Records
---
Amino acid sequence: MTTTILQIAEASGDYGKTVHSYEPQLTGVNEIRIAGRDYKRQSEFFDNQFSTTQNSVEFAKNGGGFYVDQDDIVRWHSNGRPPFGDMLLDLHEAGLITLNQVERTCTYTEIRTEQFWDEQFDKIKMEDK
């Protein structure tokens, strides 16, 4: 069954503590929906992570590969872009970012993607005139 961050926070009884904690909050959650996208854990063969590998998390953790900006958006140092959702979930499970940062980053990415496509379709419409 797919769950959401809101459902996890409501079940804990303390929304603020749950979403702002660096302690992993996804124990027992195998499918989660964030900003309209569904994420599933991989098999035991992949250490039950969401889609990235442990060495990706280690790189992010030890190499200083990411930072959190003033808007609570997680970004890569290398290019300033947000990591993809699976990576964000794995970073949360490693205790490196909060669920709030996961949700804000995923929402930001979805909004920017929607804006990009709107602009592209507007350009196509202008070319057709």
Note: Residues 3-128 form one domain.
---
Amino acid sequence: MLGQFAGVSVFFFVGLILLLGMLGYVVATGARPDRRVRSAGLTFLGPYLAEQRRIATRVGLPFRVWVGMRVAIVVGLFLVGLHSQIVLLMIGGMLGGYFGFPWIFHQRAAVRQEELNRAVLATAREMVKRMDTGRAFDVVARDVAANPRAEVEYVLAPLLSEQRIEMSLLQVAARAQSALAEMTFVCMVLGRGRDQSQLQEVIRDTIVPTQSKAVEMEDMDLAAKQERRAVVYVMLGIAAVFVYVLQAIPGFAQIYGTLMGQLWLLGCAAMFGGSVYFMDLLAPKVQWTRWDLDLVRRQFVEGEQARGF
């Protein structure tokens, strides 16, 4: 059994070193990893790093910090498994650290998105209020972006550029990474084809009431998710105590170091993972339709060209 453990340990340790080497290179090369990996011949990492950058933005962490935290948690759990001398705990620790760590931060991302949606709603109301004084939509949009709420400062930044306001609104929608925010700004783009008074009606009578109801639904959904996560955290605490007992008592470590013992651990892990999965699967969810922003942008450009702009 020790020979099997040593062989598997070496295999996973070498793989871990390669993974850490690639991620360490990414962290060390700065804020544009997608370009660095292309220049280094690691093009297969491009989509993965782009997704990690999006996740880091959603949870409100710098990209380097997010990657560093992920590497640290995977290494830490790998070392816990290595110390236990149980192969399954070593592998499970790495997989748990890789897949479980981002799941823990989903709650933080959901709270930040809720704050963003509320700020977008407040921004839409402020725009209507300023347009009621007779100011043009373009001027109002740039004024709001110049003095934004903290939650939407990054999102509204494209409105300060000199490009067409419609293109800026589409960039704002893309930056928000929120279905509700997309709906708000795309509707503003579509409403720009009408006169000022009709655009005001679209924002005041359609966008604001719809967003208000949607934010209320999101609040209820977030509260339900928090309750489910509390249950999962209790289960994780029990599992952590179980792992500690396996390491602290030599007799248990010997039992679960055997093939049958590891099959039993695998069954326990499967039951835990299955419980979490089905708990999330059976829970009611609020799902919103997402806009194809690239398609909207292309259709807008084609329409402008057809009209001779």
Note: The CA atoms of residues 20 and 71 lie 7 Å apart.
---
Amino acid sequence: MLACFLTSFAYSQNCTYSFNGNLSDSNKESLINELSKIPLIENCSVIFKSEQQHGQIRFTLTKTKERNENESPFSPVDVKAILLKYALEPVDFTLN
């Protein structure tokens, strides 16, 4: 029974992705919604300082230790593509 518990154990990792550009409030909400659809991303938030034209996306990657063939692996390239879609300049991706 203990073995079954350990095989489905989940862990998470905090991530940030900084960017430059102009982000309106309506685009901020749309950006969060789109990022939340990426598999494994949870607790997504955006901090944006309009006077500096600089922001940061914060999110948690949640993974299970149990391997699933159908599970899509996370790639920061997916986040970068969404930033570019909103005409934002990706700067730096960090795993915390």
Note: The chain is about 30% helix and 40% strand.
